[in-house]
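Hello forum,

I keep getting stuck at the same step: I have a sequence, I want structure tokens, and every attempt I make locally crashes halfway through. Rather than fight my setup again tonight, could one of you with a working pipeline run this one for me? It's a single chain of 184 residues.
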Amino acid sequence: MGAASATGTTRNNCNQDGRQFPCTRSTSPKVAERQQDRKAMAAAAKGIDAMFKGASRYDAKAFKTAVETIRIHSGERLSVLFEAPVIVEGSKASASIEADRPTFDKLAAELGAYASALSVAADRNPAVLAPDMRMEGGDVMMGGPLAKRKAAAPDPMKMPAEHAFHMMLQTCTSCHAKFRVKGE
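Reply #2:
Ran it on my machine without issues. Output:
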């Protein structure tokens, strides 16, 4: 049985494919799983960001764990979580996912590619956040989340890890801008 939260909403455990997810009575197991995955990715990104900003010490194992969290929650897994019906109670997903499935799937794959590049960078740099992992002055963001994207995305394996990280964040922002219902 669920427990009442401070807001009076009953919190239950939803079960999806044998896995338990906290959810409210109005949240479907599918939405609860989406939300849990997104929260795991956001926490991982915050940890990586703290290392790049120097707010926390670089730890290759923690860095690798964080990027692997993002990698396993992106790509095909992300696409599958947003298969039809996309619009379900408690979801902020937009119907435009179904209308523009190729773009959504491409962004999900790009997210995984950037995370994979960061994972390789962690393997190559077990002791320190090496200078070749850092962005240089010429590594420019590519026009913001609403900018037209090049037909071929740059190869994440050929860019500094910090640039791949920023491109990964830009991919998240682009996806949310296009495929998430705006807040009220």
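Residues 48 and 63 are 6 Å apart (CA to CA). If your local run keeps crashing, start a new thread with the error log.
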